[in-house]
Design goal:
Elements: E1 6-10, H1 19-31, E2 34-41, H2 44-47, H3 54-77, E3 85-92, H4 96-107, E4 111-115, H5 121-126, H6 130-137, E5 142-145, E6 155-159, H7 167-187, E7 190-197, H8 202-207, H9 213-234, E8 242-246, H10 249-260, E9 264-268, H11 275-279, H12 283-288, E10 294-298
Helix pairs in contact: 4-6
Length: 309
């Protein structure tokens, strides 16, 4: 993970225990990286003080920003970070995800590290949380942190889409596996690959009585297993550390993460936007709420954020 030399960690304004900051310091210590602790704040009441002049409102905003700066510095001072340079950046912005992505683009950050909250699954579709916006639109990798630790000799799970012939997916598979290997060296961990494949389409089995579902499943499994072994060999990953399972990606990834007690899941997100993303969501988004470990989401090569257009 030496490619992550300019880290942006998002501070949670509602928490004293900053798990993302702790993870970022750990990573920065291992990679000799520079770290920026970032907070986006906004209070609508300060914008409604119409009786005050614009200078007075600006003074009030700066007072709030200064107060938050002191709060962040106090948190940092209570955490061990002797070999890590930590800068702080606080902005007044009413849309946190925009502020984060703008900061990434402006300062060319290599990775965003952010703590997660459990969201009600229905509301996460209707009212898209900041996490989902960042996953879809941030141009750099995003590490979403949960409570799970990073133990020595642990397991990293790389979720690949081995069955796809699309160049974008193949390129992403390589990036996911390469990144997982780099992190494994850094953490002294072991890389495991997981791939899911769909079972027999129910409508085909019903509408075509002569359709051999068992033969179909066997052929699908063989195709994915062969593709998986070829991919694993390219990255020196042993056969016993590869898993091909029938089912939905989010179900298979969750099950393998629990079975391996993974400390980190590395996966790709295509970064769709619009109605299809709101209704369907990316595999990454379906997976994250289910996992009890950190998730590193990578974008395809050549991805351009809508904020860069």
């Amino acid at each position: 993970m030496d490619q992550y030399q300019n880290i942006l960690v998002v501070i949670d304004p509602s928490k004293e225990d900053q798990k993302a900051l702790k993870r970022a310091i750990d990573l920065a210590t291992r990679t000799k990286s520079t770290l920026t602790a970032f907070l986006s704040i906004f209070d609508f009441s300060y914008e409604m003080t119409t009786m005050l002049s614009s200078d007075e409102r600006e003074s009030m905003r700066q007072s709030v920003i200064s107060d938050r700066e002191e709060w962040i510095k106090e948190i940092i001072n209570h955490l061990p970070h002797q070999d890590v340079t930590i800068n702080t950046k606080i902005v007044w912005h009413n849309r946190p995800f925009e502020a984060i992505i703008e900061q990434v683009i402006e300062n060319k950050h290599d990775i965003v590290i952010k703590g997660t909250h459990q969201h009600d699954k229905l509301k996460s579709v209707i009212f898209t949380p900041t996490d989902w916006h960042i996953l879809r639109k941030c141009p750099c990798p995003v590490l979403l942190v949960k409570e799970h630790s990073w133990p020595e000799n642990g397991n990293i799970l790389a979720a690949v889409n081995i069955g796809s012939d699309e160049p974008e997916h193949q390129s992403l598979n390589k990036e996911i596996t390469k990144t997982a290997n780099q992190i494994a060296i850094l953490l002294n961990s072991k890389v495991n690959l997981v791939n899911s494949y769909p079972g027999t389409p129910i409508n085909i089995a019903i509408e075509i009585p002569e359709f051999d579902a068992s033969q179909y499943n066997s052929s699908m499994l063989k195709h994915h297993q062969e593709a998986m072994l070829t991919h694993a060999k390219d990255f020196n990953i042993a056969k016993e550390n590869t898993f091909v399972k029938e089912g939905l990606p989010e179900t298979v990834i969750e099950a393998m993460s629990e079975q391996l007690d993974a400390e980190l899941v590395v996966l790709g997100t295509i970064g769709r936007t619009g109605i299809s993303a709101a209704l369907i969501g990316n595999t990454a988004e379906h997976v994250i709420d289910r996992l009890n470990c950190d998730v590193l989401a990578l974008k395809p090569e050549g991805y351009i954020s809508p904020f860069e257009c």
